[in-house]
Write a structure and sequence with these properties.
The protein is mostly helical and 333 residues long. The protein contains 14 helices and 4 strands. It is globular and about 85 Å long.
């Protein structure tokens, strides 16, 4: 019952967040001066043709009715127009891109493998490198290793992702000709080429994010070393490896997991800058194309999809909290 109440409460919170995001996003895009019907009307766009386009796309209804139709379409699907020219958008319908003549969800899912490959690969690297270097820096506090690690972390936090990506392309792509600088190969076609084309974007994202994780882990580890339970563990004669790896690191992982869930969710929703720099056809690049072409249905669908990924990742963080710290299960119950 406690677990059911915990999961039920989190799912209800997720639903509320998504509804709020959908409402705000729809109002923002509704108030934009761009008119999706005019963009889809073509040339010449007479007043009569514009009225037909608005009626076909459902834009002649009040904004709240349009929002309700949009939310209903996610659950039950939606039909645009009528008769033989009608377009049916099957559930989950995140909208229909009339400019690309495709369902928004189909466009997103076709790009999702690229973004997922980029985000998950980089996340594994930055989690290992960031936490590992942070622990090493805390254990070797005041030494040359500590100073060198923190200097690298400061440089990583201070360097913009696009600048680091461009430098990586210049040095490792053009100057040394070691790795590809753009493009994507599906993993089903060639796992080796898939990883080889993503190695440079992975390293760029991993370095930028690992720098923050290293600083966070080091600070939390130094704070943990001053706690009574660490002194008690050492007084009992436990090895330093067990004190650091089991007692200190386990408590340090709680804020790290929180940050990891937020960062991973944001990347899975679309790594806009990195995908553009390395020419990766992911969700981030899809969003940029939607902005440039003023494809509002596609932009709205990508925004809501990104919010969905973020809340799912935060829900997963709540579950991991219960595994790392049993006290959170009782508190949340």
């Amino acid at each position: 019952m406690r677990a059911a109440r915990f999961v039920g409460g989190r799912l209800l919170g997720m639903l509320i967040v998504l509804l709020v995001v959908a409402l705000i996003s729809y109002l923002i895009f509704y108030l934009l001066p761009a008119d999706p019907a005019r963009l889809a009307c073509g040339r010449p766009c007479t007043p009569a043709n514009l009225a037909i386009a608005r009626d076909f796309m459902g834009l002649n209804e009040p904004w709240y009715r349009q929002l309700l139709d949009f939310l209903t379409g996610i659950v039950a699907g939606r039909t645009f127009g009528s008769g033989t020219a009608a377009i049916h958008c099957a559930a989950p319908c995140f909208g229909y891109s009339f400019q690309q003549n495709a369902q928004v969800i189909d466009l997103i899912t076709s790009r999702a493998p690229v973004t997922a490959s980029l985000a998950l690969g980089a996340a594994v690297l930055w989690l290992i490198l960031g936490v590992g270097s942070g622990v090493l820096s805390a254990v070797r506090r005041g030494t040359a290793i500590d100073r060198l690690t923190m200097a690298g972390a400061v440089a990583g936090v201070s360097t913009p992702t696009y600048l680091l990506g461009l430098l990586g392309i210049l040095v490792f792509g053009f100057t040394l000709d070691m790795v590809p600088v753009s493009g994507y190969v599906p993993i089903v076609d060639s796992p080796v080429d898939w990883a080889w084309h993503l190695i440079l974007p992975w390293l760029v994202l991993a370095y930028v994010n690992a720098a923050l994780y290293a600083r966070l882990t080091r600070g939390q580890m130094l704070e943990a070393f001053g706690e009574d339970y660490i002194r008690t563990a050492r007084a009992k004669g436990l090895s330093e490896k067990r004190v650091v790896g089991w007692h200190a690191l386990r408590n340090v992982l709680l804020p790290v997991v929180t940050l990891f869930g937020i960062d991973l969710g944001a990347l899975l929703g679309g790594a806009v800058i990195t995908e553009r720099v390395f020419g990766l056809p992911g969700i981030g690049a899809l969003m940029i194309d939607a902005v440039q072409s003023l494809d509002l249905p596609l932009l709205l669908g990508c925004t809501l999809f990104g919010a969905l990924v973020v809340v799912i990742c935060n829900f997963a963080v709540d579950l991991v909290y219960g595994l790392l710290d049993p006290r959170t299960r009782g508190g949340n119950a």
